[in-house]
UniProtKB/TrEMBL annotation:
Catalyzes the isomerization between 2-isopropylmalate and 3-isopropylmalate, via the formation of 2-isopropylmaleate. The keyword Protein biosynthesis does not apply. GO terms for biological process: L-leucine biosynthetic process. This is 3-isopropylmalate dehydratase. Residues 12-123 form the Aconitase A/isopropylmalate dehydratase small subunit swivel domain. PANTHER family: 3-ISOPROPYLMALATE DEHYDRATASE SMALL SUBUNIT (PTHR43345:SF5), 3-ISOPROPYLMALATE DEHYDRATASE SMALL SUBUNIT 2-RELATED-RELATED (PTHR43345). NCBIfam families: leuD, PRK01641.1. GO terms for molecular function: 3-isopropylmalate dehydratase activity. The keyword Phosphoprotein does not apply. Pathway: Amino-acid biosynthesis; L-leucine biosynthesis; L-leucine from 3-methyl-2-oxobutanoate: step 2/4. Keywords: Amino-acid biosynthesis, Branched-chain amino acid biosynthesis, Leucine biosynthesis, Lyase.
């Protein structure tokens, strides 16, 4: 994954509550398992009609916010089924951070595993940030310093688990994290296993 250390971007504001994973990534696309190109399906049914024609008015299709890397959302964002493709689609569209009052628990976990930062803030603060987003203000999130600013004014300190922060800033997935924490023990086990049962590792062609 691409490391995430800092985001400087406008933010798109989607205040609707309980935007579930079927809205983010409709179920009929679930057989698409290749991450490449999934961004085109993000919020598909909010952006296109049955004939594939663009539906005007969706915030991520507004030229002012088409390149936004930050999405400010309503309460309960990512609720519903556990489909990981919802996060893949967001990331494929360029979203690297979602800010909301609350998230679907599994969705938030999938975000951490796939390079998307989630920030939970009170509803009143979300509304303030949404207004700033609509004014096209510049948002800056720094994971190394754990800070969040809008136009240079501090919004909050980032309160996220250190393990999650390390995964994001290093571009790690769960396997990378396991190798960091247990790599030496895994190597030691493999050496001991080879020494104890060397015939398992002999070339059968010999």
């Amino acid at each position: 994954m691409t490391p995430l250390t800092r985001i400087t971007s406008r933010a798109a504001f989607l205040p609707e509550e309980n935007v579930d994973t079927d809205i983010i990534f409709p179920a009929r696309f679930l057989l698409l398992m290749d991450r490449d190109g999934l961004g085109r399906y993000a919020f598909h049914d909010r952006r296109f009609d049955r004939d594939g024609n663009a539906i005007p008015g969706f915030v991520l299709d507004d030229p002012e916010f088409a390149d936004a890397k930050i999405l400010i959302a309503g309460d309960g964002f990512g609720c519903g089924s556990s489909r990981e493709q919802a996060v893949w689609a967001l990331a494929g569209h360029g979203i690297r951070c979602v800010i909301a009052p609350s998230f679907g628990e599994i969705f938030a976990g999938n975000c951490a595993k796939n390079g998307v930062l989630t920030i939970t803030l009170p509803q009143a603060q979300i509304e303030t940030l949404g207004a700033l987003a609509q004014e096209k203000k510049s948002f800056e999130i720094d994971l190394e310093r754990r800070t969040f600013h809008v136009e240079g004014d501090k919004v909050a300190d980032l309160d996220l688990p250190e393990t999650e922060r390390q995964m994001l800033v290093n571009g790690w997935d769960e396997t990378d994290l396991l190798l960091r924490d247990e790599g030496a023990a895994i190597d030691a086990f493999e050496r001991a296993h080879r020494d104890a049962q060397p015939w398992l590792f002999e070339d059968p062609a010999r």
